[in-house]
Amino acid sequence: MAMTYLLASILAMAASGSPGLGEAFSLRVGESVSIEGAGLGLRFTDVPSDSRCPRNAFCVVAGEAHVVVEAEFESESVTILFRVPPAGSDTQRLARFTLTVTALEPQTDSNRRIEASDYVATMVVTTGRP
Fold first, then answer.
1. pLDDT at 129
2. How many Cβ atoms from other residues are within 10 Å of residue 90's Cβ?
3. CA distances from 65 to 52, 94, 108 (A)
4. What three-state secondary structure class fits 49?
5. Residue 54 neighbours by CB under 8 Å, 6+ apart
6. pLDDT tens string 26-75
7. Could you tell me the residue range of the domain that residue 28 belongs to?
């Protein structure tokens, strides 16, 4: 189901060019997007750590991935750190916006190292409180 949602998000973004507020979109590390009508630009810059429990392991602690996003708003650049648990999400605030990383793919696997270029973050930007 996660892959279906991810594919639908990518197709929606490609069809509209820029996502609007409340629309899910996906970015790979190094990709950028402008949120339509919001004056907000986002760039997925890095996953400096990923300690999420691998899908083929049993873990006492679930861990989390750190997702770094650069935001440009009102001529300012801000670095935002999201802490995303396995199959979870994290929300941060910037000015009047609520930014949520709803998914981070791929899930870790003890038999495979994830390269930075493999990461895809699915996000949603809304206005107001979460």
1. 63
2. 19
3. 6, 20, 10
4. strand
5. 107, 108, 109, 110
6. 999 999 999 999 999 999 999 999 999 887 788 888 899 999 999 999 98
7. 2-127
Number of domains in the chain: 1
The CATH number of residue 7's host domain is 2.60.98
* pTM for the full predicted model: 0.81
Closest CA to 63 of 84, 36, 45: 84
Amino acid at residue number 80: I
Q: Can you read off the two tokens belonging to residue 86?
A: 């396995």
**DSSP label of 114:** P
In 1-96, the DSSP E strands lie at: 25-28, 32-35, 40-50, 65-73, 76-84, 90-94
